[in-house]
Amino acid sequence: MRGKVVHAIQDEYAEDYSWCYGCGRLNEQGLHLRTGWDGDRTVTYYAPRAEQMAVPGFVYGGLIASLIDCHGTGSASLALHRKNGYEPGSKAPEPPRFVTASLKVDFVKPTPHGVPLKAIGVTEEIHPKKWKVSIEVFAEDTCCAMGEVIAVVMPKTFQNK
Amino acid sequence: MRGKVVHAIQDEYAEDYSWCYGCGRLNEQGLHLRTGWDGDRTVTYYAPRAEQMAVPGFVYGGLIASLIDCHGTGSASLALHRKNGYEPGSKAPEPPRFVTASLKVDFVKPTPHGVPLKAIGVTEEIHPKKWKVSIEVFAEDTCCAMGEVIAVVMPKTFQNK
Question: In terms of CB atoms within 10 Å, which end of chain B has fewer, N or C?
């Protein structure tokens, strides 16, 4: 179960889009979530910090929601990038940057703390700028949460300059 | 818009249930979200930290999901406590501790960073141990996110001892 993403889409986001608390490589205090392909599915690994608990022994639900959120936008970016003919880790233009339009999480079981988490995603194109990502979060071999993210290409309203 | 909850339900959770990263008063690194009544609605205020951004100038969606998550469980606890005849800040037994069964967030508009956020909740009993909380998150006077939490009284599976 313990794994590592070698070529993450977040490694290739433009610098201006790399400050996200969840997945920005430039956000020093952030979670540094990294999302890559595993065949035709997407994967993100995360080992929760000690303080990210709901009650002692179990992971904080908001952290799981954050993992699903960034896994969703990262997966959508991977999928559109692949549709455009590119893979992370190869010479390619900057990948598209998505934001979350909606997020849904079903907490299926309490998520034990102290084991690495793995999010697995399946992407589906709704239209080229809007993708649905269905996500399962595993602690070891147990699916503890199921999520769905509707991700859209970042609109100009997010550009502050 | 800037406000403060005087009597928060989280101030009265049992110590064992006060370690939540989002709303536990004993979690030093946590967000310390505090939820109280405002008439027949519930309210939580939060000023995002500098690093809790999606892109510079806008709040991280996972933080908004976390705010909605803990506002949901706190609101459900307030509601059942009131149904039982008790208010936070008065002499009362420990309030019931809820966990999130499901969480849904619609990100209506980009949430500007640098202004305090206010979550407002409306509670609805599904049955005594299961409540629905409908939540709106405001930045100043603008509703930026809408959420729904299904909260259930914490099951024994969360008791690690």
Answer: C
Contact A160, A116 (CB under 8 A): no
* Interface contact flag, A55 B16, Cβ < 8 Å: yes
Is residue A82 one of the residues assigned to a domain? Answer: yes
A70 contact B CB<8A: yes
Looking at beta carbons, which residues of chain A come within 8 Å of B111?
Answer: none
Domain residues for A52?
9-158
Which chain B residues are Cβ-neighbours of A103 within 8 angstroms? 61, 65, 103-105, 107
* Min Cα separation A58/chain B (Å): 7
pLDDT of residue B1: 46
Of the candidates B36, B35, B65, the residue with the CA atom closest to the CA atom of residue B52: B65
Name which of B55, B67, B135 to mutate to probe chain A: the one with the most chain A Cβ atoms within 10 A of its Cβ: B55
The token pair that represents B28 in the structure block: 């030093």
- Which one-letter DSSP state was computed for residue B28? T
The total number of structural domains in chain A stands at 1
Closest CA to A138 of A50, A29, A41: A41
Determine if residue A93 is left, alpha or beta; phi over 0 gives left, psi from -120 to 50 gives alpha, anything else beta.
Answer: beta
Confirm whether B64 is domain-assigned: yes
Of B57, B63, B105, the CB nearest to A21: B63
A27 located within any domain: yes
Determine contact: A157 vs chain B, CB below 8 A: yes
Return the CATH number at A60: 3.10.129.10
Span B115-135, average pLDDT:
97
pTM: predicted TM-score of the whole model, two decimal places? 0.96
Mean pLDDT score of chain B: 95
**Residue-wise pLDDT tens digits, A99-119:** 999 999 999 999 999 999 999
Beta bridge pairs of residue A133? A123, A149
**pLDDT tens profile B75-120:** 999 999 999 999 999 888 999 999 999 999 999 999 999 999 999 9
